Amino acid sequence: MEAIVDRLLVGLSRSLGPAPGAAVRVFLVAALLAAVAPAGFAWARGGPKPFQRVGKSCAHGQPCGSAAECFSGICIPKMCGIDGVLYAEGTRNPSNPCQACRPGRNYRGWSNANDGTLCGNPTGDECVSSFSTCFEGECVPQPLPDGSGCGDGQFCCGGGCCAAGEACGSGGCEPGDDDGDDGCTPGTCPDDPTGCDDADCEPTCSIDGVVYNQGATDPARQCWECNPTFSTTQWSLRADNERCGTDNERFCCNGECCGIEQCCGGLSCTFDYTACFPEG
C-alpha cells in the first residue's frame, strides 16, 4: 500500500510541481483502502464495530475499532472477520490448513497460505506423509516412500497400502509370486561368487537395470535396501533404528542415517534414547 502511494505521489509531483503534502498522502491511502476493502460491520445489533473506520483517517486519534489499528494516519485491519468470527493474523482455516487469516490481503475472508507450507496428512491414509505441503490453497498429498509399513505384513506402494503377500511393481500393488520359483537358476545369483545351492535363488530386485540380492544396500543411501517382499523394482526403507554408518555406529530413521549419538525417535532423529528404545 505504501509503495503504491509513493508512486502516485511521484507522478503528482511531476505533473503539478512541488511534492504534495501530508494531507494529500492521507487522502490517497484512504481512497485506496476504501476501493479494496468494504466498510466495517457490526457483529451484533447495537454492538461495537471491529472494523468501523478501516480505510478512514485516524490522524487525530479517531478510534479504528477493536480489530483495526492506526498506521500512517489511516485505519487498517489487524485481524480477520469471517462469518461473524474474529481471527488473529496467521490463524489457519479450521476447514482448510492451506488457508489462513492475512488481514493485509483480505480481512473479510481466508487467504491462501504460501506454497510449500506444511499441512499434515490431508487424507488420513496410512501411506500419505504427515509432511504434505500446500499448493495454491490446497493440501497436496505426498505419498510415503515405497516399502513404508502400513499394517500387519502390509507396506506402501505408489501411495497405496499393499495387502500381505502382494508385491510393489511399477504400476503399484501387484499379486505376489506364490509359485515357489524366484526367477533364477543355481549358479546365477547376482553378486554371489559361490553360486546357489538351492533349486531357487533368494528373491532379488531389479533397479535401474541392475539386479541386487535381497538385503543389498542402496549404494547412495545407507538406509534403503533391496527387499523383494516390498518391491522388486525400487529401493525399500530399512527399519528404523537398524544400524548404519561406516562402522555401524549410527541408526536409520525414515530412510536417513542419523548423526553420531542420535537414534530414531519416531519421525526424526533425536539424542533422547528413551524415545527410541522405551524398553531400555
By helix and strand content, what is the structural category? mainly beta
Strand fraction equals 25-35%
In DSSP terms (H or I, runs of 4 or more residues), the helix count works out at: 3
Q: How would the global form be characterised?
A: elongated
Listing every helix as H and every strand as E from the N terminus to the C terminus, the arrangement reads HHEEEEEEEEEEEEEEEEEEEEEEEEEH
Rounded to the nearest angstrom, the radius of gyration is 31 Å
Which stretches are low in confidence, meaning pLDDT under 50 for 5 or more residues running?
A: 1-5, 26-45, 178-188, 191-200
Distance between the termini: 59 Å
Integer average pLDDT: 75
Strand order of the largest sheet: 5-6-7
Percent helix, as a range, is 10-25%
Number of strands: 25
The largest pleated sheet is described as: 3 strands, antiparallel
Describe this structure as you would to a colleague.
Among the domains are: 2-77, no CATH class; 87-140, no CATH class; 239-280, no CATH class. 12% of the residues lie in helices and 31% in strands. It contains three helices and 25 strands. A three-stranded antiparallel beta sheet has the order 5-6-7, with no helix packed on it. A hairpin with a 2-residue loop joins strand 11 and strand 12. The longest helix has 15 residues, at 2-16.
